[in-house]
Amino acid sequence: MSKNTKQTARIPEEALTGSLREYRVPEGGHLIERVKNFYGWQNLRREHNLWPYAKSTSSAPRTHTTALTDAGQKLAGVNFASQDYLSLASHDRVKEAGARAIKDYGVHSAGSAALLGNTSGSLALEKEISDFLFGRETILYPTGWSAGFAAVQGLVRPDDHIVMDVLAHSCLQEGARASTQNVHFHGHLNTRAVERRLQRIRANDTKNGILVVTESLFSMHSDTPDIGVLRALCDEYDAQLLVDCAHDFGSIGDAGLGHLGLQNMVDSADVIIGSFSKTFASNGGFISVKDIETSEYLKYYSATQTFSNALSPVQSAVVLEAFKIVRSKEGKDRRLNLMNNVLYMRAEMEKAGLETLGDPSAIVPVRVGAEGLARIASRNLSNLGAIANLVEYPAVPQGGARFRVQVMSDHTTSDIDKLVVLMLQAMKDAEIEYRTYREDENSSIHTPTISMDEPASRAA
Description:
Layout: H1 3-8, H2 13-16, H3 36-47, E1 56-57, E2 64-68, E3 74-79, H4 92-105, H5 120-132, E4 137-141, H6 144-153, E5 161-165, H7 170-179, E6 183-186, H8 191-204, E7 210-215, H9 227-236, E8 240-244, H10 258-262, E9 271-275, E10 285-289, H11 292-301, H12 303-306, H13 313-326, H14 329-351, E11 363-369, H15 371-384, E12 386-387, E13 389-391, E14 401-406, H16 413-441
Parallel strand pairs: 3-12, 5-6, 5-7, 7-8, 8-9
Antiparallel strand pairs: 1-2, 2-3, 4-10, 9-10, 11-14, 13-14
């Protein structure tokens, strides 16, 4: 079936409805057979070019790239789907550092950090991060996800408690579930709810530990907590504070310390988690704590460090060089250019009547609304020559599907102008098609749509 036929063919209702959540807990006694319903739903969406995930680049993830859908359809255009915030993934110095590491060390660490997996490069990287964070102790992990999981799993024991923002990263939630049944979720950024949970816990348990878990920048909403209030609550109720700064560390603020730096709270977090995959041009992550006793404990009691291969020599070298750039005048200039791009994009989106969410960061969430509408808009956008990631329920609230636009320092105003024009066109055309679909279905269920003539109302 040709691409044009797919777009004009009648879209089955099942391809515009349903969500990943429905297949999370399949029923039936056969572990293999029961998962196959997911593929049927997924492939129906794929056949109608409505499956937005698992795209692959066929060139470097620069501001313009070529890519493939997971069905093999070719895409090309302006790229707002790569999380290379400071545009360091193709930086000459970073690439040269990786090449030198291959020449000196080969391509593989060949062991866990506990068993000869470290290199002089990884030790230098730990020191670089520790210096950047004013003398903390730092432990490296093979992925950012494993660092988040380890920070919770390595410290929390079954009788302890975790108070966690409901939108915290998957790695933090999975680490919590692996550690204790005493996991207390609270409403997003609701510090009063944090206080109520801490009060309730301490009214019944004065003996065991409490870990309060948040992020410095939440990626689906691009918003940030009041870290000072959380620190004060931790002090009042004898709890420790963990802050995951995966999305703003290195890319926001004059010094690159993200919202921890902007709020003057670097020293207030007991545990800091960071990822290298957003700003530092590589996989990997770290945990940073205040004392060597805690860092040494985590090295041997956080499973994803002890039982995973250490960062490869190439990864360590790449991240170390990226850190040097981040901490230099060039890094400061790149952060400034990134923020200028972000502010320009948000202003142009607003002028066009497109609703952006949250606060200025390298992530610009652009609200679409109903999942079916968003799937059509995502298809349209790719075919028009712009690439941006669609996020839908359950990663965001139902009926709150959005594009998660990821801005780079090297984007130009022309790139941004092009995205705004194409996104507006994609969403207008999707609105027409989706409205026709709903009318044809004679649906009695009201599904919110957006008007492209007036700015959409702000989400609650």
